[in-house]
Amino acid sequence: MTQAIKSKALFERRKQRVRTSIKRHGRVRLSVFRSGKHIYAQLIDDSKGQTLAAASSLDKAIKGTLTSTSTVEAAKSVGKLIAEAAQKADVKQVVFDRGGYLFHGRVKALANAAREHGLSF
Q: Beta strands of the chain (E only): which ranges?
């Protein structure tokens, strides 16, 4: 097994482990996707199968103010934006779904910024 295949398999195992533990809570899920250039966040109600709100580093409000969309600062801005969108959708408590990503760097910055701006998880 090559290193790339092994790494992808470990990522998928972490992702399934996180999702399995999240489904027990039954709350709205704050899902994070991180690419090389951008970071995305969604509030998902799994019981209805709906996305309640979304924010990303591609949003016009954020993209114009940042020098780069792939930094911790961009993730903090997305965290603030998703928290504001959650307040508009009357969502106060969520479950954080980091996917298979480790909780550090941009993922951690997004989570901490969302907490600072009113989301509880």
A: 28-34, 39-45, 50-56, 94-97
Residue type present at position 106: R
pLDDT digits (tens), the chain, 121 positions = 688 888 899 999 999 988 888 888 889 999 999 999 999 999 999 889 999 999 999 999 898 899 999 999 999 999 999 999 999 999 999 999 999 999 999 999 999 999 999 999 9
Determine which helix (DSSP H) or strand (DSSP E) holds 77, and give its type and residue range: helix 72-88
Query: How far is the C-alpha of 50 from the C-alpha of 65, rounded, in Å?
Result: 30
Q: Look-up: residue for tokens 């298979």?
A: 100
Which pair of structure tokens corresponds to residue 35?
A: 């690419």
